[in-house]
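Quick question about two entries, pasted in order.
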Amino acid sequence: MFRVLTLAALIVSPLLLLTGCGGSSTATPSSASTAGTSTAAPDPAYLLTEEPAGAKSVAEVRANGKDGEEVVVAGWVAGSLEPIIKGRAAFTIVDLGLPAPECTTKPYSYCCMPKEALLPKLIMVKFVDGDGKTILKDARELLGIKEGHIVVVRGHLECSEDGMVNSIVANALFDRGYSDNPLKIQSLDTGFQPSK
């Protein structure tokens, strides 16, 4: 009996170390994945049926954008373990040219990338109401997106007090769908043209 328990402990303990910062690789649903199982249909008022032309990269608008500038930006819903803010029409997108990390079972998390490397290629996207406040409806329900989706958003840039672009106040979204690695999608003929 002691041998069986010792053998079981030796097999299970290393598996616990392999879960990494992305959590377990078992089929246990996380709050992020169960939050996206709503039966409500996305609101068509915010969705585009065709991808808009002229999409810029996240890195380009972060580096060169101006407050109030109208933009179309393509990005990957990613940047943390929960890039979609629960209960709000807000989420972060990451530059499509940033390779997905291989250190986790949730590649959209970028949890093993230094923040200094991630932040210039990450931006907050928010959909607001008539008063300029973020809509209090989860983006999964309002827009039909989930972590790992490639999206193209249309809106205007918003800067912080120091003049740095920190968010896109969006009015429309086109969803290209899910990808576990944005570089795969970028290489396809999708109409997206990386910044030069």
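Here is the second entry:
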Amino acid sequence: MADGDSEEVVIRDYFKKGFTYDEILALLDKYHGVRMSITTLKRRLKEYGLKRRNVDYDVVSVREKIRGLLDGPDCMGGYRHIWHTLKMQGICVPRSTVEALLRELDPEGTEERRAHRLRRRAYRNNGPNDTWHCDGYDKLKPFGFPIHACIDGWSRKVLWLYVTRSNNWPHNIATYYLDAVEHQGGCPQKLITDLGTENGLMASIHSFFRDDLNSHRYVPSPRNQRSEAWWSYFRRSRTNWWINFFKDLEHQGTFNPASELESECLWFCFAPLLQEDIEQLKEHWNTHYIRKSRHDTVSGRPDSLYHLPEMHGGAINLIAHVPDDELRYARVHLVEQAERNDYQEYFQYVTTTCDLKRPRSWREGLELYNTLLDCAVNGS
């Protein structure tokens, strides 16, 4: 949220994301300099028309909203996922109602979504910014959409999640790391990555910031525990839908991955859509409630765990300060900028010249893809 947001906007945002009253008060005090009692907060919520119990809702409009969510990647989520998504959009409805509507609208999907128990290794961490886990995701790479992410080990907050032209180019990954360091106000005590060469520059920059070669650790990908566990959730909740979608385009002959023109056109039309989609999933994950389990993990919302560790038994002030001159030096002297792409410039030129709108859904993306390819091949 921007620093200039009004008190009402901030309270509405925190309420919509599902934070408890105590968490909202703590966040207002810690990050916005606003102190109020819980009585005042409740009075504000009443003035804004915000409540969580006995909420009036139109089941017909809720049904249509859920139907719209099911016509896309959200169909991969269960009723808790849909319920939280609706809540983030300001639609308050009992979870039992969402569960019943989901069974009505998607009976086959409901049966297919079954929880599987896993036996996990114990995980030890002191608090937020003790350890960041970084990893790449290649399941969408055959279609030209590799993804890279970083997760805070203690809170399980996703710090970044990007669709990138290549998650194997070290300068892309280093840029994401530097952006996160600048945004969070420092770097973690430790950084864990897999053995990929794309992590080398980021690892070197982190060791430079910490002045400690041992502050970064390479581990085999399956042992990067936090990242690998989150990718499993990511595939169940999102990428299975996109994988099937792009495979359908390939099988129908609409997309040929061997064609550079078609691959670049697919990127132009769908990369922004995919980025927006996974940003929503990141926000969804960071504000959803992780239930207490028999494993040695802390329950709570990742955003709350990360920003308010003192309320959840975590250590505070673990983030390591990075001087501005060191941050500037890394950006200017260590990280290279991506080169121009003639295909992307051409598609942007056609879009602007022909007054074509950038897509807002996968259907509009597919329509733009076919239009741009027709222009490129036939000149029409």
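Reply: The chain has three domains: 7-47, 59-111, 131-334. The mean pLDDT is 88. Hope that helps.
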